[in-house]
Design goal:
Distance between the termini: 103 Å
Shape: elongated
Strand order of the largest sheet: 4-3-5-6-8-7
Mean pLDDT: 81
Low-confidence stretches: 59-70, 229-237, 294-305
Length: about 450
């Protein structure tokens, strides 16, 4: 019996010395230490963020949408995706961060999946109906400065006595040929328009290469974050049930890991923090893997692949790593086809290459806008700038009956470099910026109608 306790004591001493050595090694920096555990405060902040992330995940899942999905869109048989009508109480409608929404007003989603109230197929007497297509910038332009554009056009002699009607056809993340397909779809349903304004360019170049191609999905297909999550044939109820089951299984493990992670005196030990950190990270990774396993393509033989995702992958053919040249050519062809389609239906077409701060000299930007231009996470490249230049040249030489093209060149329309025109590192604008765009577009329409 004495021998047992002697051996037990020796073992305990060895374990204590081993832990003490490990603690000293960790504190001396001989092992790489994650930033999350360098101090007790950093460690506690990390645990708090993990807990908040888990709560946010549960909120997303309660909306029947997988974690990699924005939760604001669902698949459309023709257009790729459209907003969910049941999420109409968001500022500016679903899909927009609060800081993007200048008006701060909720925006309904109509039966077509478009932002704004329903509108009849046939125009009223004396109505000039103008649709605005494009992505998030075009959408927010209508919401922010649509009334200003109507006012500017109403004051023109050519529209005297007419009622100007602006219809928002733009959807966040849309890129050609989605605008072309949407226009053809609405015309085939019998909706009437006098003119279509397309404000685009950035999504075609940036979203295609920075998201789709990086995920090994065709640059031709719609912005992949909005459509590849949900499987065809599943109801919202079945998606919710499966997602909730996955969350409940993985959540309990991650919750346990966060709960068991020491926070009191013992958390002063960097070794303890290291062990707890690894445990939480592993549990978190298992949760993410469990959710993403049903969303992402499996590359091995015999794996099940979402048919839409498979089609996008098989169509991923381009000569350059980021498909920038192909994306630019696709935009040009979509513009040309839209022009022909609208001309044949007696509808005028105005194409505007949207304001882009990435292709202007930094000294022509305000200090805040300069910071947005320098945002490394956006990943704007020289190849994209070259493609943008070609798009601008295309519009300059684009001269077809009933179709007018122009670039909303940054330093030509935003002439006061002391003013801020951006709200983020993307191309989303302030109210001042959208109002200037409205004035510029009204001027082009006046000259070319």
């Amino acid at each position: 019996m004495v021998s047992f306790w002697r051996n037990f004591g020796l073992a305990a001493i060895c374990i204590f010395v081993g832990l003490l050595c490990a603690e000293l090694i960790a504190r001396t920096g001989l092992l790489p230490t994650p930033a999350q555990i360098t101090s007790k405060d950093a460690y506690l902040t990390y645990l708090g963020k993990e807990q908040n992330s888990l709560r946010a995940l549960l909120v997303r899942q309660s909306r029947c949408m997988p974690s990699d999905y924005s939760g604001h869109m669902f698949q459309h048989p023709f257009l790729g995706y459209v907003p969910r009508p049941d999420m109409s109480d968001y500022p500016c409608g679903p899909g927009f961060a609060d800081y993007m929404c200048v008006t701060k007003k909720p925006m309904p989603i109509n039966e077509l999946g478009l932002y704004g109230p329903s509108f009849p197929k046939k125009k009223g007497e004396g109505v000039v109906r103008i649709g605005v297509s494009g992505g998030s910038v075009a959408n927010l332009f209508v919401q922010t400065s649509g009334d200003r554009l109507k006012e500017r056009l109403s004051n023109l002699p050519r529209f005297a006595g007419k009622k100007i009607e602006i219809i928002n056809l733009a959807i966040p993340g849309y890129k050609q040929p989605q605008q072309f397909v949407l226009t053809a779809y609405l015309l085939s349903l019998g909706y009437q328009f006098d003119a279509i304004i397309d404000i685009s360019g950035f999504n075609e170049i940036y979203l295609s290469s920075h998201y789709n191609v990086e995920a090994h999905i065709s640059y031709v297909f719609p912005f992949y974050l909005h459509w590849y999550a949900s499987e065809p044939g599943e109801t919202a109820e079945s998606i919710k049930s499966k997602a909730q089951t996955a969350v409940e299984t993985a959540q309990s493990k991650l919750t346990a890991a966060i709960w068991l992670a020491p926070r009191k005196l013992i958390a002063n030990s960097i070794l303890v923090r290291w062990i707890a950190f690894l445990y939480v990270e592993q549990s978190d990774q298992r949760l993410q893997d469990a959710i993403r396993s049903s969303l992402r393509a499996k590359k091995g033989k015999g794996s099940k692949v979402h048919q839409y995702l498979y089609a996008a992958y098989m169509n991923n053919r381009c000569t350059s790593p980021s498909c920038v040249k192909e994306s630019e050519a696709l935009w040009e062809k979509s513009i040309a086809m839209s022009c022909q389609l609208l001309h044949d239906n007696g509808i005028k077409y105005f194409i505007f290459l949207q304001p882009n701060h990435y292709v202007v000299a930094s000294e022509k930007l305000s200090p805040n806008d300069r910071k947005n231009q320098a945002a490394k996470q956006m990943g704007w490249t020289k190849e994209m700038t070259s493609a943008w230049s070609k798009m601008s040249q295309f519009l300059t030489s684009f001269n077809r009956s009933g179709c007018t093209g122009a670039e909303l060149k940054w330093d030509s329309i935003f002439t006061d470099s002391t003013k801020d025109y951006l709200v983020d590192a993307g191309t989303h604008l302030t109210a001042r910026g959208y109002n200037i765009v409205a004035d510029t577009i009204a001027g082009v329409i006046n000259k070319s109608w």
